[in-house]
């Protein structure tokens, strides 16, 4: 028997890796899932979706559509599974269901406030810790993880419990959190690891953590984020598949001792999937980056709180500069010492406490 709050159709806006994975997981558990994306067609007949994962591999059925008008009028849940810089268009599409609960699963900080400003319906936040990517016929999970869920506004507690149970039944461990902000900031810490630095240096995260200057950069950016988070009254939480406590313990060790430990842990954490900013800067991607909602979010919050965040500020500036002018990357390729110096130079001319 389906849980009462998610027994109706579920619309996932965003037919990429994350949307396909979350929709596929719910479909495995028997939900009627509609994937709304650019690749969707006019037909609504169920089509196969393969979930390639070490635990619980499965092939399930979902409905792929390219127009929200093809989806049911009454739905149990809308999941916004697009990149954060595409959230405005996803919210426009979600306007078809003004009263439906909405779950945001974007990386970084800021998506929930944007959704709250655009809607009056109940809002939930999700933090996915499983690295996924599209493959032929479906989506692959490149590392074991899970999803955290929390209420942002007016979400029925029973909906949270039922949704967590639905994800877990579909093979994705889920946990409900009381503090949505603590959950989102804890996920942000994981998103920061080896992300901006990997794109700027063209190095894998494990190698960055093994380098003296690379490790210094990483440790500084994470300590800045933790300082801002704690200033706002939130402590890191343990997300399914992402033990932030172990990260904090590693950062507290002397650098000479922590580097080899962190190198092994970070190197194995993503299951071979490159960080998002590496793909954007080094993979020939175009368009916006997530940096304003990652390092930029730490810098913005630090500026508001009067807390210095020079590394996050500098990294956000350099990622945006490199996205606009890829020639900048030549200076930093495999040169963590140069990047460290450039980060502080960029932050020195930015507004705010540094």
Indicate the topology.
Elements (H helix, E strand, L loop, with lengths): L9 E4 L3 H12 L4 E9 L5 E6 L5 E8 L11 E4 L6 H8 L7 E3 L6 H8 L4 E6 L3 E4 L2 E4 L5 E7 L3 H13 L4 E4 L2 H13 L3 H6 L3 H6 L1 H20 L12 H9 L2 H15 L6 H7 L12 H11 L4 H15 L11 H13 L6
Parallel strand pairs: 1-2, 1-5, 2-4, 3-9, 5-6, 6-7, 10-11
Antiparallel strand pairs: 3-4, 7-10, 8-9
Helical residue percent? Answer: 40-55%
**CATH domain fold name of the largest domain:** Rossmann fold
Number of helices: 14
Strand order of the largest sheet: 8-9-3-4-2-1-5-6-7-10-11
Order of helices and strands: EHEEEEHEHEEEEHEHHHHHHHHHH
Number of strands: 11
CATH superfamily of the largest domain: NAD(P)-binding Rossmann-like Domain
What's the end-to-end separation, in Å?
56 Å
Describe the structure.
The chain is globular. It folds into two domains: 175 residues, NAD(P)-binding Rossmann-like Domain (Rossmann fold, 3-Layer(aba) Sandwich), CATH 3.40.50; 162 residues, N-(1-d-carboxylethyl)-l-norvaline Dehydrogenase, domain 2 (Orthogonal Bundle). The protein has 14 helices and eleven strands. The longest helix has 20 residues. 44% of the residues lie in helices and 17% in strands. With 354 residues, it is an alpha/beta fold. An eleven-stranded mixed sheet has the order 8-9-3-4-2-1-5-6-7-10-11, sandwiched between helices. Helix 1 links the parallel strand 1 and strand 2.
